[in-house]
Structure formats: structure tokens, C-alpha cells
Design goal:
Elements (H helix, E strand, L loop, with lengths): L1 H7 L6 H4 L2 E2 L2 H15 L9 H10 L4 H7 L3 H14 L2 E2 L1 H14 L1 H10 L2 E4 L7 H11 L6 E4 L16 H7 L11 E6 H10 L7 E4 L3 E6 L4 H17 L7 E5 L2 H13 L4 E4 L7 H14 L9 H12 L5 H14 L7 H17 L5 H15 L8 H8 L5 E5 H4 L4 E6 L16 H15 L2 E9 L2 E3 L5 E3 L4 H5 L4
Parallel strand pairs: 1-2, 3-4, 5-6, 7-12, 8-10, 8-11, 9-10, 11-12
Antiparallel strand pairs: 13-14
Helix pairs in contact: 1-7, 3-6, 4-6, 7-8, 7-9, 11-21, 14-15, 14-19, 16-17, 17-18
């Protein structure tokens, strides 16, 4: 986005965009809270308005879609964006939509980009929100000729909250100018796992298997989640006894809170584990901070990261903002931090920011890094990760010898020998609200499909049949409909 906005916004006279800085999460929250006060009365329930507004902006919601979301959502969006502009700020969605407008509205911008970038490569196309899909089409199917190479799988579109729409990839593949190559071989999962996965998500595409075997089993734990945790511990112990490395075992839960509770149980049972959460995204900057922590904490040669590689990444992030003293300052910090592995991770992150990373992230060229570092900082200082030590931060960079505990969304892109899924109750999987909306229900189905296809050899599906409402009341709705459809419950 910055390759478009930074050079061309000033040329077309968009001074409010050209001179703006990227708002950090605190500044975005301030702008949002002020917008809510301007649009809604104090007595109105606005608990879910932020997520609704964010989704509307990401998906470039039409007038009809906005009306379905709420009659005052357009006013809220206008007030929020006005508040940002008043402080000479923009957020990431502003950056994307500004880039899209520049490409769609100004032919000279398209021609200039086409002259510089002859080919456009897009991975995980199914996760693109509409704005980026339109940007691709404006560059590749208009009056300029940029060649496109896109890879994606609509069956793995599970980030609807970002505005992504799996049908956009289907539409692209059916475009006359596109030569489509369909990949029909799964190199990860055993044949039995593939057979079950295709029953979860029926399609015309038949998937072939390279690996033979595979096991999918459901386990009924009638007394509830505590019994499921005991069963999980038993499965891990058995797999470990048979020689499966702990890092090749994953426990997939529905929410971050459930991941934390499962991790506490496993640790109490002396099973090392690692919680992969969605508190912040993995970008060059956030991975650098984790890898720096690993270099500090683990013995030389065992962290998997050389100092020269870390400094190379550091230089790439600092770019033109780098000063000759930045390297010396960073290395001194690393050596000092080695003496205090139990210091708060938030203090280590702040020290890295102060030694040059912060100046780099103020550049819009690093807007995605800035956004995720801000999330990381928030999570470590006042969020769910506020108790994390430097040692624990290092563990996130090197989850060797530990079971991985993660959510369905965070498991995408990973693979393990053994996968254990918990709390597969009707009302939780699929989530009860999603059953009222066909599109959301379809995404819940894809999440389940993605989760079971993380496994090479074994999938263990745990359920009790009991569902607890947010109020605390419980009811017996039985196992997830997905288990019933598979004939496993």
C-alpha cells in the first residue's frame, strides 16, 4: 500500500492522506469512543459496534449491507474517520482504500505501477478483503497489463471478520483471462483423514492422498470439559510414549481463554506446552522481537537464530532511519537482558522500541509492522499477556519440546502428527449465533475442516454434549452437528 500512497497521494493533491501518520491502537480507540458518543446515546448497547464498524470498513460494505448492519453505522464510520483526520491520522483501512482509489481513479497511477511491477504474485488469495481484490483487478484486468500469479483455496477462507470473501477467488478463477490449475493432491494428511475432511466440506473436487492410513476418532466425555482435559492429557502421554515429539502434538480450542485453561492443566500434569494466541500478527517486526528474546534466553547455538541474521532483519526494518549507534545499542541491550530472563516481556519490547525500532515504525512504509507491534505492546502491558516474562516471550519463538495449544483460527497454516480438538458441542462448534446466518455457518464449517486437516496421522475429537450459555446456564444440545454428519457421534 505504501508503494502507492506515499509517492502518488501528494501528486493528486490528497494532502490529508499524504501528511498523515498511522494511528496507534490507543489513538484509534480515542477516535472511536468520540464517534460513539457523537452518534449513540449513553443508554444504547454499543458493545459490538466496534467489530461491526471494522468489518463494514474492511469489506467495503454496500449501502444495503450497511443498512443490515445498523442504520447508524454509516454515521459512525464517518465520525470515526473525521476524528482521525482532525488529528492528522489514518489507520490501515484508510491506507488500503486510499491506495485503491488512487489506482482506480487515476490512469497515470496504473500506468506507472505497471511499468515498475510487471508481475503481481498473491498468496492466500481467499483471505483478500474486497478492497485488495479490486486493487488486483484494477492492475491486471484494465487498461494496463500486469501479469497475475495467484494461489488460494476457498475451502480455507476462515477470516470473515477481516472482510474476506471466498467467492472472490472463485470468481477470479472463472475469469476468461485466467488459466486455472486445480491442485488435487494433499501431501500432509493420511488418506482416512482426507476422506473425513471431504465429508465435512463436500465439493466437486476430489482430493488424492500421498500418505496412507490416518485415524479420526471421537471421544464422548459426558461429565464435561474437565473430563476432556483429562482425556487430552492421556492422549498426549500415549503419543509421547510411542515416540511422537511434543512439538508434533496440537490441542485446538475454540477461544483464547480455553487455550489458557488447557495450558494450565497440561503444565500441572508436567506436560510442557506453548500457547499460540491471536493477540498480534506475525510480521517481520514482531518475529524479530520474539527471535531477539530467544537469542538472549537460550544458550548460544540453540536458539536457531544467529546474531548476524537478527541484525540483518534489524537493518531491513530500520531502513533510512538507522543510525551507526543503533547496532551497538541493540547488542548491548541483548547482553544486559541475558542476566534477567524473568524480567517483564513488556520492558524488553519497550527497550527494543527505544533503541531504534520505534523511529522506524513511525514510517508508513512499515505500517503493518507498526500495527502489529502496537498490538503486541498492548497485549504485553495490559492485555492477556501482561504477565509474560522474557523467558516466555522467547518460548514463543522456539516451541520445541512442547505441545502447541491454539485456536481454530490460529492453527491455519500449521501441521502436526497428532491433533486434539476439544469442546465440540453443538452451540460452540458451530457457534450458536452463526447458525442463524448461512455465510457465517459456512465459515464455521470451513474452520472445522481446516482444523482436522492440520493432522498427518491422528485426529481426536472430544465432546460432552453440554453447552454453557454466556449467562452461565447449561443445556444439553448434544455433540456438534459436524460430528453427527461424520457419523462419529
Amino acid at each position: 500500500m505504501t508503494k502507492i500512497v506515499i509517492p502518488y497521494a501528494p501528486v493528486v493533491g490528497w494532502s490529508d492522506v499524504a501528511g498523515a501518520s498511522i494511528a496507534n491502537p490507543g489513538e484509534q480507540n480515542d477516535a472511536f469512543e468520540a464517534a460513539v458518543k457523537a452518534v449513540y446515546s449513553p443508554s444504547e448497547d454499543t458493545r459490538y459496534i466496534r467489530s461491526t464498524m471494522d468489518k463494514a470498513r474492511k469489506m467495503l460494505a454496500t449501502a444495503d449491507e450497511l443498512r443490515q448492519m445498523g442504520s447508524r453505522i454509516p454515521q459512525l464510520i464517518e465520525a470515526y474517520e473525521h476524528n482521525l483526520r482532525a488529528e492528522a491520522l489514518i489507520d490501515f483501512e484508510d491506507l488500503v482504500t486510499s491506495a485503491l482509489r488512487l489506482v482506480e481513479e487515476f490512469p497515470f497511477v496504473r500506468r506507472a505501477l505497471a511499468a515498475r511491477y510487471r508481475c503481481l504474485y498473491v498468496d492466500e488469495y481467499q483471505d483478500l478483503p474486497p478492497a485488495l481484490d479490486r486493487l488486483v483487478r484494477a492492475l491486471c484486468f484494465s487498461d494496463v497489463d500486469v501479469r497475475l500469479f495467484a494461489v488460494g483455496d476457498p475451502d480455507q477462507s476462515i477470516y470473515g471478520w477481516t472482510g474476506s470473501r471466498p467467492e472472490l477467488l472463485d470468481e477470479l478463477s472463472n475469469t476468461d483471462e485466467i488459466a486455472t490449475v486445480r491442485l488435487n493432491v494433499n501431501y500432509r494428511c493420511g488418506a482416512e483423514i482426507i476422506a473425513y475432511s471431504q465429508r465435512v466440506l463436500p465439493s466437486e473436487r476430489e482430493i488424492g492422498a500421498v500418505r496412507e492410513g490416518g485415524e479420526v476418532r471421537a471421544v464422548h466425555c459426558p461429565s464435561g470439559i474437565d473430563e476432556q482435559r483429562q482425556e487430552t492429557g492421556g492422549i498426549v502421554d500415549k503419543a509421547r510414549a510411542l515416540g511422537t515429539p511434543l512439538e508434533e502434538i496440537a490441542v485446538i480450542c475454540r477461544k483464547n481463554e480455553e487455550c489458557s485453561e488447557m495450558a494450565d492443566f497440561l503444565r500441572a500434569r508436567s506436560i510442557p506446552c506453548f500457547v499460540r494466541s491471536g493477540h498480534y500478527g506475525l510480521t517481520a517486526a514482531t518475529m524479530l522481537v520474539e527471535n531477539l528474546a530467544a537469542w538472549v534466553v537460550f544458550p548460544r547455538g540453540s536458539s536457531g537464530r544467529s546474531l548476524s541474521d537478527l541484525l540483518r532483519t534489524w537493518h531491513g526494518l530500520l531502513g533510512t532511519s538507522a543510525k551507526p549507534t543503533d547496532d551497538v545499542s541493540l547488542v548491548r541491550l541483548l547482553r544486559e537482558s541475558a542476566q534477567t530472563p524473568n524480567q517483564p516481556a513488556s520492558e524488553f519490547l519497550q527497550a527494543v522500541i527505544d533503541r531504534g525500532l520505534g523511529a522506524s515504525l513511525r514510517s508508513r512504509a512499515n505500517s503493518q509492522d507498526a500495527q502489529e507491534i502496537a498490538k503486541m505492546r498492548s497485549a504485553l502491558t495490559e492485555g492477556d499477556l501482561s504477565g509474560l516474562t522474557l523467558q516466555a516471550l522467547a518460548d514463543r519463538a522456539r516451541p520445541v519440546g512442547r505441545v502447541e495449544v491454539t485456536t481454530m483460527s490460529s492453527a491455519k497454516g500449521l501441521e502436526f502428527d497428532v491433533v486434539i480438538m476439544t469442546a465440540l458441542e453443538e452451540g460452540l462448534v458451530p457457534f450458536y449465533w452463526s447458525t442463524q446466518d448461512p455465510k457465517e455457518l459456512a465459515e464455521e464449517r470451513r474452520k472445522f475442516y481446516v482444523s482436522i486437516t492440520r493432522a498427518r496421522r491422528e485426529v481426536h475429537l472430544l465432546y460432552s454434549g453440554w453447552f454453557t450459555w454466556p449467562s452461565g446456564a447449561s443445556r444439553h444440545d448434544g455433540p456438534s452437528r459436524f460430528l453427527v454428519e461424520l457419523g462419529l457421534a
